[in-house]
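Quick bug: DUF4780 domain-containing protein output formatted oddly.
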Amino acid sequence: GWLKDKVPDLRPWEGASLKVLDKVDLPKLVRFTAALPVHPGAPVGAKEALDRLQRQNQKLQTGK
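Here's what came back:
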């Protein structure tokens, strides 16, 4: 389509690149919600739990 034809001519900011993908080739978004204990006796606080998740899953976006 017209967008696939136009993208090669576009020049985004330095370090950026553009590519048009078919819908079937887009990465699948997986979203989940977790309940983290925040009471004073919890073994790990919510911030530490999110930090650990981030360190162990480099591509995971924890919303920080």
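Actually, after a second look the formatting is fine. The mean pLDDT is 84. Closing.
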